[in-house]
């Protein structure tokens, strides 16, 4: 069954919200049964200096889990969507440390990336979620 961008975005958010590796793997299997490829990866650090590393981690995880193939289109779609999701969080995060998870989901040409981060200083944490969608040619 083919889903639209809303369902794929929801899957990416759900992946980003998983708290344990076991929960992440169970959700990945559930989504796989619906024909949706998914991946998640932890990330964190000082926001500004970590953006490049976060984007790279998203690309590597997406390739490792079969969400994307090693093509210019797919890597660019994940990189662009991750940067867009991070830019939505930027106003709250600049100058602070962040930590959380990136969730990615794909079905056919729909790719979504959700970034769920705790942002803070000591114990005064804020939370934020950024979400972005890209369309990339699907080669099966």
TrEMBL record:
A Pfam family found in this protein is: HutP
> Which superkingdom?
Bacteria
GO terms (molecular function) for this protein are:
RNA binding
**Annotated keywords:** Activator, RNA-binding, Transcription, Transcription regulation
Q: What InterPro entries does its record include?
A: Regulatory_HutP (IPR015111), Regulatory_HutP_sf (IPR036482)
Q: Where, if anywhere, are coiled coils annotated?
A: none
Subunit (UniProt): Homohexamer.
State the function annotated in the UniProt record: Antiterminator that binds to cis-acting regulatory sequences on the mRNA in the presence of histidine, thereby suppressing transcription termination and activating the hut operon for histidine utilization.
Name the family.
Belongs to the HutP family.
Instruction: Quote the protein name from its UniProt record.
Output: Hut operon positive regulatory protein
Q: Which organism is it from?
A: Thermanaerosceptrum fracticalcis
């Amino acid at each position: 069954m083919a889903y639209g961008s809303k369902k794929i975005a929801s899957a990416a958010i759900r992946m980003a919200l998983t708290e344990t590796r076991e929960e992440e793997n169970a959700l990945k299997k559930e989504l796989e049964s619906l024909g949706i490829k998914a991946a998640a990866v932890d990330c964190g650090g000082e926001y500004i200096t970590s953006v490049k590393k976060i984007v790279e981690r998203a690309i590597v995880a997406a390739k490792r889990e079969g969400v994307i193939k090693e093509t210019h289109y797919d890597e660019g779609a994940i990189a662009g969507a991750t940067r867009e999701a991070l830019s939505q969080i930027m106003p709250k995060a600049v100058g602070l440390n962040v930590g959380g998870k990136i969730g990615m989901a794909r079905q056919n040409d729909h790719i979504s990336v959700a970034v769920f981060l705790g942002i803070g200083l000591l114990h005064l944490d804020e939370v934020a979620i950024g979400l972005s969608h890209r369309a990339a040619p699907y080669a099966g």
